[in-house]
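Cross-posting from the modeling subforum.

Setting up a comparison between two proteins and wanted a second pair of eyes on the formatting. Protein 1 (sequence, then structure tokens):
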Amino acid sequence: MPHAYPLLDVEVRTPRLTLAGATDDLLERLVPVIREGVVSAGHMPFDDPMSLYEDSPQREWKWLRAIWAGRARVDPQRWRLYFVVMVEGSPIGMQDLIGIDFAALGTVSTFSWLQPSFRRRGLGTEMRSAILHLAFDGLDAREASSDAFTDNEASNAVSRALGYEPNGTTWATRRGNPALLTAWKLTRKNWERSRRDDIQLTGVEACLPVLGLDRPQRA
């Protein structure tokens, strides 16, 4: 049965995984993953503030509150779409899509994390490919951006593999300490060069008015 809120019905399906709108039911199923821990010792991929660095149970509480707050602040000027990554029916991570003044600028950024036991399987690239398909094919984006700390080899490798171009550097803090970020951008032209025909979108057209968009879904 469709949800009353269209953003929760959006799905992106690839041969390897599904990005499903982050309903409360799916978030509850992800809580054990959060409780077990997403960040290992010496692994600091996120900038501040980040609930995933907190100790349990504050980690789970802050993580849930941040998603609930983000879902409630959707308007044409700023939105963040939250998706749970599903593999063979099990939730293993999250993939977000963020738009700021999207109707005017057509630009998006992304954020993601994976359960540690599912890393190094190519799923990070598959997740990003899926969310980029939603951005460019479903929402008609002009450009996507990403950034990662310079020592986050996995994230930077995904950006390179998907055709992003380096776009300078900037600084951010992680656990209170300054660290250098590499910025990346992916133009629509570069995305089109490796556009996939095996990714399916569901529920996109119904969510356009929620995001302040009035153009039809791309064919």
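Protein 2 (same layout):
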Amino acid sequence: MLRLDRDARGVVTLTLDRPEAKNALSGALVAELTETLAGLAGDAAVRAVMLTGSGSVFCAGADIGEMRAAGAATAEQNEADSRRFAGMLETLERQPQPTVAIVNGAAYGGAVGLIAACDIALAVRSARLALSEVRLGLVPAMISPYVIRAIGPRQARRWFLTGEAMDAATAERVGLVHEAVDDAALPAAASALADALLAGAPSAQREIKQLVRHATGRSEDADCAMLGETARWIARVRAGAEAREGLTAFLERRKPGWTRGE
């Protein structure tokens, strides 16, 4: 479910590889991504980590079927499932090497969290991105710290509350991605960015990542507390009636009850 390619320079490309499920983040894929990132973190020969999706989709977000099942599980199981997803995002953001999201297509829900947790993001102009949780009766709890850091609270409120899809130009304007490029230009843009990262000193880059965290007032205790709070938040909401209706409606390819009469 996760393909790893490594070039001679130490640039690693991780490709979410569930094309039949639009690269959705199943529990198994979350675990594999977390474990792989942790393994790369201690490898001094790795200079940069690129994250992309197979086919024409970056990632459809969390696996909807598994989300519905987790909501029906015990409170403890539901929260544990949420913590695994939150832990994956924290592992990605704390990766010592520079990380780059190569957004090759659509990105929804939790996928936007992946993008925001990376240091740098490139997207094709044809990509559509959406913080779509609200349309499923959910909230973007676990990804919210990363997205809000990327785009700020004012923009977050708009996109969290409406669940609208934004195009790549809008994503660039609000700060979710750094650059939007023509689809055919994505490989060259990614290569140029890798070259720029390789021109920097690796130890200095690790220090810079830690410096940014420190300079923005982050602390280990606060981050750990936030991880737990957001995991509990989504576990609680996911077990509610709206989430059960929204996730069921999605799987049944119908509108949820709160939209009837439109």
